[in-house]
Write a structure and sequence with these properties.
Number of helices: 7
Helix content: 40-55%
Number of strands: 7
Strand content: 15-25%
Shape: globular
Strand order of the largest sheet: 4-5-7-6
Largest sheet: 4 strands, antiparallel
């Protein structure tokens, strides 16, 4: 397995997420005549979880490594670091107003705002799309939240990862019984 540089964590200790090259996964899957369900099973995750990753096109490095092994390609072929030279993401609003303006260059946040604009066009509007891929959008101020990240020890991270794997396996087993 070819890895990207050492695991990267932000200053809060959270994992850095990478944009996934969806087209590369599609080429690998079609070349081997696999279905999404086959890749999900080979990667040890539910079809729903794998579909979510494909739809949102980002995941943490460990998940990308697992998918790369499952489809038989190099991790570097699947992942793009979430950095393209433009690092500014801005949220601004005027006190007592209901609308905030966001200027975003981070791909996964842009994807999220695009999805929200489709789901809630009356509340979220993309007002500008730049050549570099960044966007400017209006969102409700009520959507702006400041949530401090949890500082976990390596042992707690390992426990959470193991619990997630058990939950995914149990979910797959339970779905099989209900069919």
């Amino acid at each position: 397995m070819s890895r990207l540089p050492d695991r990267q964590r932000s200053l809060t200790g959270r994992m850095v997420y990478y944009e996934i090259k969806y087209s590369q996964i599609q080429r690998s899957v079609k070349g081997k005549k696999l279905k999404d369900a086959d890749v999900a099973r080979m990667a040890g995750m539910t079809v729903k979880a794998f579909s979510w990753i494909l739809e949102n096109q980002f995941a943490d490095l460990e998940v990308i490594e697992i998918i790369a092994d499952a489809v038989g390609c190099n991790v570097k072929e699947l992942a793009l670091c979430d950095y393209e030279g433009y690092v500014e993401n801005v949220i601004e609003w005027i006190r007592d107003q209901t609308r905030a303006t966001v200027s975003l260059s981070q791909k996964r946040t842009i994807s999220r705002v695009r999805k929200l604009a489709k789901e809630h066009p009356e509340k979220c509007q993309i007002v500008a799309e730049n050549k570099d891929g960044s966007i400017c959008a209006h969102i409700p101020v009520s959507w702006v939240k400041i949530v401090p990240g949890r500082a976990l020890t390596d042992e707690q991270r390992t426990q959470h990862a193991e619990q997630l794997k058990r939950n995914l396996l149990n979910a797959d087993c339970n779905r099989g019984e209900n069919r």
